[in-house]
Amino acid sequence: MKHRLYIIMILLIVTLSLILLKNSNDRQVPKNVNRNARWIGGKDGGYWFEIVSSVSDSSFRIKIYNDPNGDLETDEIFYISSTCIVKQIDSTNLLLLINGYDGKRIIIESEGDARNCYLETR
What we know:
Elements: H1 2-24, E1 38-42, E2 45-56, E3 59-66, E4 72-80, H2 91-97, E5 98-101, E6 106-108, E7 118-120
Antiparallel strand pairs: 1-2, 2-3, 3-4, 4-7, 5-6, 6-7
Helix pairs in contact: 1-2
């Protein structure tokens, strides 16, 4: 039963994220930002995120660009934090789980654990 609830929660998160991602990508992609990048943010601004590659199920090379000019903020390998309940993420779903960037960590959605779930550099 617990496993079924976990699957339902993941599906709900992915569905809601798809809706939010679609609405947030009405912005024009700056010329120096890869077309595969997605804008994620709010009324006060945001960032363009590009998943360059999956290093493993728990680490990813990610480029983050400033909004609106598209200047490269960082190009690093990010790792799932040890405080996160989720220990592996499929890179094809990663953009759907990103909630924001605080200049150091990428905050990701995790079943009721958003404050403690993030990607960080080492």
